């Protein structure tokens, strides 16, 4: 069996479900174009489901922008820091981010 570096890396990366994120977790988010540190300001749970957008305190100063509190799509949450280790966030709820990205790129939106 031949394993590539990518496959090996995927096996070694620890993962966590989106539903297991807790208020005040330290996240890596990508809504500014580059990964930045963000602090989760609220629970990701809503009733019986999960919120497709969450409130975070983003440290934009890491990439030359302003620190700011605001909403981000679940798709923009890439990692969470637990016990000093960065874990990949998986099983995020579907959002309208893909439609929004197409719209702002001038592409045809078919929804």
Would you write up a description of this structure?
The protein has 111 residues and is mainly beta. The chain has one domain. Helices cover 14% and strands 38% of the residues. The N and C termini lie far apart (42 Å).
Quick take:
By secondary structure, the protein is mainly beta. Helix content is 14%, strand content 38%. The strands form 2 sheets. Strands 1-9-8-2-3-6-7 form a 7-stranded mixed beta sheet, with no helix packed on it.
Spell out the blueprint of helices and strands.
Blueprint: H1 5-12, E1 15-17, E2 26-29, E3 36-40, E4 45-46, E5 49-50, E6 53-59, E7 67-73, E8 77-82, E9 85-90, H2 97-104
Radius of gyration: 15 Å
Helix content: 10-25%
Spell the H/E element sequence: HEEEEEEEEEH
Strand content: 35-45%
Q: State the helix count.
A: 2
Q: How would you sum up the major sheet?
A: 7 strands, mixed
Euclidean distance between termini CA atoms: 42 Å
Overall average residue pLDDT? 88
Unreliable spans:
none
**Record field, number of beta strands:** 9
State the secondary-structure class.
mainly beta
User: How many separate domains?
Assistant: 1
């Amino acid at each position: 069996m031949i394993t590539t570096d990518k496959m090996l890396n995927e096996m070694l990366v620890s993962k966590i479900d989106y539903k297991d994120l807790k208020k005040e977790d330290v996240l890596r988010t990508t809504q500014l174009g580059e990964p930045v540190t963000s602090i989760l300001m609220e629970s990701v749970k809503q009733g019986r489901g999960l919120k497709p957008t969450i409130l975070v305190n983003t440290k934009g100063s890491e990439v030359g922008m302003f620190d700011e509190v605001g909403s981000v799509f679940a798709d923009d949450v890439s990692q969470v820091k637990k016990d000093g280790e960065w874990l990949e966030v998986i099983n995020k709820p579907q959002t309208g981010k893909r439609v929004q990205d197409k719209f702002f790129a001038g592409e045809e939106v078919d929804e």
